[in-house]
Amino acid sequence: MIGTPRVHHRLTDSTNERAKALAADGAPHGTLVTADEQSAGRGRQGRVWTAPPGSAVLMSLVLRELDERHALLPLAAAVAVCEAMPVEASVKWPNDIWIERRKVAGILVEARPQAGWAVLGIGLNVSITHDDFPPELRDTATSLSLASAPPGPPATPAAPATPATPATPASVLGLLLPALDHWLGASPVTVLSAWRDRDALKGEPIAWSDGSGIADGIDDSGALLVQTRNGPVTLDAGEVHLQR
Question: Residue 115 contacts by C-beta under 8 Å, 6 or more apart in sequence?
Answer without folding.
Answer: 23, 24
